[in-house]
Amino acid sequence: MSAQLVVPALTPAFAQRFAAEWIDAWNAHDLERVLSHYEDEFEMSSPLITRLAGEPSGKLRGKAAVSAYWSLALKLIPWLRLELAYVLSGVDSVVIHYRGHRGLVAEVLRFSPSGKVIAAAAHYL
Hints:
Layout: H1 12-27, H2 31-35, E1 38-45, H3 47-52, E2 59-61, H4 63-76, E3 83-89, E4 93-100, E5 103-111, E6 117-124
Parallel strand pairs: 1-6
Antiparallel strand pairs: 1-2, 3-4, 4-5, 5-6
C-alpha cells in the first residue's frame, strides 16, 4: 500500500480565520492577496466563467487563467464588496457563504496538504 498525504481536519477556527482574510482580500480588490490563498494549478469552477471568460465548461485551471478572469470581473464590478454570512468547515474543505453583487453565494474551497486551495467552486442563488 502506498503512502498518501492526508489533510488534517480543518478546524472551525482555521475556517473562520481563512474566510475573514479571504473576504478582506476581495474587499480590498487585492488580486495578488486573493491569489496567495491558492495553489499555482488550482481549478476554479463557476457559472460566471462561461459568460465572462467564454469557457463553456465553466472551469479554469491555474493562477494565470483565473487571474485574468478575476481581473476582468473586478474591472466590470468596481463596487464589488463581499459580506460574510457564515463559514462551514469539513475534513479538507471550507464553505464560505457570503452576500456579493449578485446576492447570496456559497464557495466550496478544497485544500491541498500544503494548506492552500487546490479547487474552488462558486454557487449562486
